[in-house]
Design a protein that fits this description.
- With about 190 residues, this protein is of the alpha/beta class.
- It has one domain: Isochorismatase-like (Rossmann fold, 3-Layer(aba) Sandwich).
- Helix content is about 35%, strand content about 20%.
- It is built from 7 helices and 6 strands, in the order βααβαβαβαβαβα.
- Strands 3-2-1-4-5-6 form a 6-stranded parallel beta sheet, sandwiched between helices.
């Protein structure tokens, strides 16, 4: 798992407990917590890709209604997965963590300028923001790993279809959090 980074997508108050709540999100919190802690221990960068909408954004006005408005409690990462000062936060205004954000330059600057080669994605939603972030990672040449038990969607069907699509279209490797942690530890000798 060469030059990996963990990207946590939209584990925000509004998506877990708020205006656009996904009941199934609580199932992945312990796994993501374990993944984040293992990544930090192995000095693997942890990046939070967070919706931070303006009230007039297309997603807010025309699709999902008011959610994750920049500067509100709803747009903050849930307390259980709170970022540390060593982590990175990249705000986004669309489904993809890459679209018109600083995510790609950040990834390319890490590892003393060698750049990230592998992105490990977790968070919400398997078939929407995780999918679009994976698409843009694929188009930019990153290897993609999806934490199978660290992503979730509104329904089991959406989740399963999302995983199949990610694997088939973007050549994503689908792994459990424990499998990912084992590979991260083996790579760094931890």
């Amino acid at each position: 798992m060469e030059n990996a980074a963990v990207i946590i997508v939209d584990m925000l108050n509004d998506f877990v407990t708020g205006d656009l709540k996904c009941e199934r999100a609580k199932n992945i919190i312990p796994n993501l917590k374990k993944l984040i802690e293992a990544a930090r221990k192995q000095n693997v960068p942890v990046i939070y890709s967070n919706d931070a909408h303006y009230p007039h954004d297309f997603e807010v006005v025309h699709k999902w209604g008011r959610h994750a408005i920049k500067g509100t409690k709803g747009a903050e990462v849930i307390p259980e997965l709170k970022p540390t000062e060593k982590d990175f936060i990249v705000e986004k205004r669309t489904y993809s963590g890459f679209h018109e954000t600083g995510l790609d330059p950040l990834l390319r600057s890490l590892y003393n300028g060698e750049g990230v080669k592998t992105v490990i994605l977790g968070g919400l939603h398997t078939h929407i923001c995780v999918r679009h972030t994976a698409a843009d990672a694929f188009f930019r040449g990153y290897k993609i790993i999806i934490a199978k038990d660290g992503v979730e969607a509104f329904t089991q069907e959406d989740h399963e279809q999302g995983l199949k699509y990610l694997e088939y279209v973007y050549n994503a490797k689908i792994m459990t959090v424990d499998e990912i942690i084992k590979e991260l530890s083996a790579k760094t000798g931890g």
